[in-house]
Each structure stands twice: as structure tokens, then as C-alpha cells.
Specification:
Layout: H1 3-14, H2 18-37, E1 42-44, E2 48-55, E3 58-61, E4 68-71, E5 74-81, H3 83-89
Antiparallel strand pairs: 1-2, 2-5, 3-4
């Protein structure tokens, strides 16, 4: 599902205009992004937690030339699925 499809589905389910749905989705993304930039975590109960993970500096190789390169330390966004989402995606089988 792409962002446009998500917005259309959101508009349909909430019975709001596509413009209002677009604004809501963009606002949610902006809030999560701003909080992650500050180093905060964003938890949505049952869905999951967005956080920032730190990656240490390391050595790597240029795949085209095989030359050794230094990869700088960085931060990356991380998502951990909540229990409700996990069980929805991976339901237990009844015997």
C-alpha cells in the first residue's frame, strides 16, 4: 500500500474528505518525524514503538571496486511492532 492508497482508505473509513485525510496522515507523519529528530520515542499502544537507533562508525567495502572505506556513525529510525499488531499479522493456529 502506498501513501495515496492509505489516504484514500483513511478518508473512506472515517467518512472525511480526501483533503482532510491527507492533512491528518501528513500531520501524523510530521509529528512522529519531529519527535524522532529530538531523540524521543513514539509509542502507539497495541501498534508499536518508533525510536532512534545509533549506528557506530565502521569499516566497509565499496562493492564496485572492493576498496576499503570508512562509514561514519549515524542514527536510523527503528520500529518495534506491538503485541496486538504481531498477533494480527501472525495469528496462532487452533488445534
Amino acid at each position: 500500500m502506498k501513501k495515496g492508497e492509505l489516504i484514500a482508505e483513511f478518508a473512506k473509513r472515517t467518512e472525511v474528505s480526501a483533503a482532510a485525510a491527507n492533512g491528518a496522515v501528513n500531520t501524523l507523519i510530521a509529528i512522529i518525524t519531529e519527535r524522532l529528530k529530538k531523540g524521543d520515542t513514539v509509542g502507539i499502544t497495541g501498534f508499536g514503538t518508533f525510536s532512534v537507533a545509533k549506528r557506530a562508525a565502521r569499516k566497509g567495502r565499496n562493492p564496485a571496486t572492493g576498496e576499503a572505506i570508512k562509514i561514519a556513525a549515524s542514527k536510523t529510525p527503528k520500529f518495534s511492532a506491538g503485541a496486538t499488531l504481531k498477533s494480527a499479522v501472525n495469528p496462532t493456529k487452533k488445534k
